[in-house]
């Protein structure tokens, strides 16, 4: 099943490469629309409350009525980080320093997080699920303790870099594994989910999935948020972690539930990208909120 999905994603990727004839102006406007949509979705997954329209107003420099300072700070940080990924991914290195820089950029406007920007956590943290109001509704996973974090991150980044270079495993398997392991470690005190989605965009772009800036990955995650958390939790609870209170060396580890979800999102994203190849399809694919953002962007001179 997973291999069939991978094959279909690769087929759609090929169709995008072969048929990408949208004008630079249309692609540029789509990218701006996706920046707003992805920023809204990625921050709402973590409990922020700004709508896409409010994100768009904020990034135009207009104050929104109901946003908290933290909402605005998080939105600005994610928007600018993702914009940097979309514009500069070819020059970016996948490295520990690069990931810490992502974290620093993500939280650059969040005043209360100034002390731990770009640094691994120093206190225990838990993976929690939040409801639409931003309230925690349960602990999903006990993350890696702080004193193991640096070593586990070094090992994960080294393995991922080597695996992507050696090409023994399909890159989608390697990237999917990196994300689920990264979120199990939860290396930073705050911002791990948003960092994981920015890194997903970066890694997929570097592996040739160049439609990432034109269809929002984050929106598809937000639209399937319960399934996202279930897939993560189902896989992560099988992990053998010798520092865990429930350590069991005989457990059977599997990330298949996560990969099935992750690949289903990538498949839908690729399918929407191919549909965008005809400019006439843009209005059919964009949601009503995205259309409002698109209409505004269309009205603004380049």
From TrEMBL:
Keyword Metal-binding recorded: no
Active site, UniProt feature: 186
PROSITE patterns assigned to the protein according to its UniProt record, in alphabetical order: FIDO
Pfam families per record: Fic (PF02661)
Domain Fido: 94-264
Keyword Kinase included in the entry's annotation: no
Binding site for ATP: 190-197, 228-229
Full protein name: Fido domain-containing protein
Organism from which the protein derives: Candidatus Azambacteria bacterium RBG_16_47_10
